[in-house]
Specification:
Number of strands: 5
Largest sheet: 5 strands, mixed
Strand order of the largest sheet: 1-2-5-3-4
Strand content: 15-25%
Radius of gyration: 14 Å
Order of helices and strands: EEEEHEHHH
CATH class: Alpha Beta
Length: about 160
């Protein structure tokens, strides 16, 4: 049995490198099947406890992360862990904040920032990344100065 998701699991986004990350809305029930080994939760307040390792990023609904440095670090951690673990990224509805974070992971994976929202909308949810400022955040998101080990160059 693999430690990562299956590409056809509900909510799973396949990045260009083959890494699989599940996005979901916390207001919906946990999907059937394996549970995450790591979750990144994007909420305005502390999320409820989960029985797997997790990290909380303070991110109010329809807004941007409260701490952009912490957000970039959390995205790098999720991207790295997705190489061999079941990583879940979730917010309340699973579209705006989750889609924005998934688009930033796509940038880390080598998708150009200007194409990352379209990539996530095509491969995850057509309504992902809900606000103009979330789209702008992704377009301006840069791979940290020390590019993650193994990050791909798009093309």
């Amino acid at each position: 049995m693999t430690a990562t998701w299956r590409p056809d699991d509900p909510g799973v986004l396949c990045l260009p490198s083959g890494r699989l990350v599940r996005g979901r809305g916390l207001r919906r029930p946990l999907p059937p099947g394996p549970t995450p080994t790591f979750g990144l939760y994007l909420l305005g307040r502390t999320p409820p406890p989960v029985p797997w390792e997790s990290r909380w990023l303070r991110w109010p609904d329809f807004r941007l992360p409260a701490d952009r440095t912490a957000a970039a670090e959390a995205f790098v951690e999720a991207w790295r862990r997705a190489a061999g673990e079941r990583v879940e990224i979730a917010c309340g509805g699973g579209r705006g904040r989750t889609g924005t974070a998934l688009a930033c992971l796509a940038v880390l994976d080598g998708v150009p920032p200007g194409e990352a929202v379209a990539y996530v909308r095509e491969h995850y949810d057509r309504r992902a990344v809900e606000t103009p400022w979330q789209r702008r955040y992704v377009a301006r998101f840069a791979v940290p100065s020390h590019q993650p080990e193994g990050a791909r160059q798009w093309g």
